[in-house]
Amino acid sequence: MVDETKGLALVTGATGFTGGRLAEVLVTRGYRVRAMVRDMGGTAATSLRALGIETVQGDLTDAGAIARAMEGVTHLFNIAAAYRDASHPDAYYFRVNRDGVRDLLAAAAKAGVARIVHCSTCGVHGDVMEIPANEETTFRPGDVYQRSKLEGEEIARAAMARGAPVSVVRPTGIYGPGDLRFLKLFRTVGNGTFRMFGDGEIAYHMTFIDDIVQGLILAAEHPAAVGEVFLIGDETYTTLNLLVAEVARVLDVPPPRGHLPVAPLMAAAVACEAICKPFGIDPPLHRRRVSFFTKARAFSVEKAKRTIGYQPQTSLAEGLRLTAAWYRETGRLAPAGRRRAA
């Protein structure tokens, strides 16, 4: 039921995993929700409307559409981003992840939006040398996605410095029912084809989808969030060895054994990118996938806990169990009994 005191929330990226779940939860909390979508006739837009969410056509490359979508908005959640895809030229990432932020903030200022949450990424810190990293850790973006996200975040933080009601959230690796990014990990562990490259002791930090949504909403509602940057993630980080072992446990299969060297895999990734990128083909192997085995991701969420009352609710074990169950329910993984028999 709509609570008129909550206002109208505009969510960019609502047809994606994180933005879609955020929009759904905002509806349950009484907000009127508007989603800016590229394809008004698509399945995702239709599903949003079925939840009572208003959809308007547009994307972050269209300043006019942004201005129209901002009319009457009280809360802005910028979740949309150009993610890693070889079919995009580098300029596209900056047009969406940097220039789109500039246009959103300009339109929000003109419309008098009361609270703005910009979703950045822990990836702006790159391969962290400080374990655990925090909001003040040096920026070391490692690819065009992370560089463009950092430049977009810098625009948001500059707006903060001018007094705009902006908060920035940097989530760690988001997963949960509805996510497909980690499906390959579940499939390969489940069918016994997963191979660990390197020693597997590199740090990795996850965030269950409902915990990131909690953090985003707190950033939009808590008075102390204005003008602040927050890392949002699970209570603790893990290692790749422990993550893969936990995936195997929830799938009820033996954990993978053995380790392979990273250097040949990285060389193959570089060659694969060089061959595929000129043709706009997403390479089956690229450096980002190899970095899964090599880049440390470990962060402290103490600032968010202390400042806005953030408290992760879903343990890694429970989150992985729920994710595996969704993969099975949707036919993306074989049922547990069949897998054990195989």
Description:
- This protein has 13 helices and 13 strands.
- The radius of gyration is 20 Å and the shape is globular.
- The chain has 342 residues and is an alpha/beta fold.
- It has a domain of 223 residues: Rossmann fold (3-Layer(aba) Sandwich), CATH 3.40.50.
- Helix 1 crosses helix 7, helix 6 crosses helix 8 and helix 8 crosses helix 12.
Summary, kept brief:
With 342 residues, this protein is an alpha/beta fold. The chain is built from 13 helices and 13 strands. It is globular.
Task: Name the features.
342 residues, alpha/beta, Rossmann fold, 7-stranded parallel sheet
CATH fourth-tier homologous superfamily of the domain at 8-184 and 202-235 and 298-309 = NAD(P)-binding Rossmann-like Domain
What is the highest CATH level, the class of the domain at 8-184 and 202-235 and 298-309? Alpha Beta
Beginning-to-end CA distance, first to last residue = 47 Å
What does the main sheet amount to? 7 strands, parallel
Poorly predicted residue ranges: none
**Average pLDDT taken over every residue:** 93
Q: So what's the overall shape?
A: globular
Q: Into which percent range does the helicity of residues fall?
A: 40-55%
SSE diagram, text form:
Blueprint: E1 8-12, H1 17-28, E2 32-37, H2 43-50, E3 54-57, H3 63-69, E4 75-78, H4 90-111, E5 115-119, H5 144-161, E6 166-171, E7 173-175, H6 183-191, E8 196-197, E9 203-204, E10 206-208, H7 209-221, E11 229-232, E12 238-239, H8 240-251, E13 259-260, H9 263-276, H10 287-291, H11 302-308, H12 316-329, H13 336-341
Parallel strand pairs: 1-2, 1-4, 2-3, 4-5, 5-6, 6-11, 7-10, 8-13
Antiparallel strand pairs: 9-12
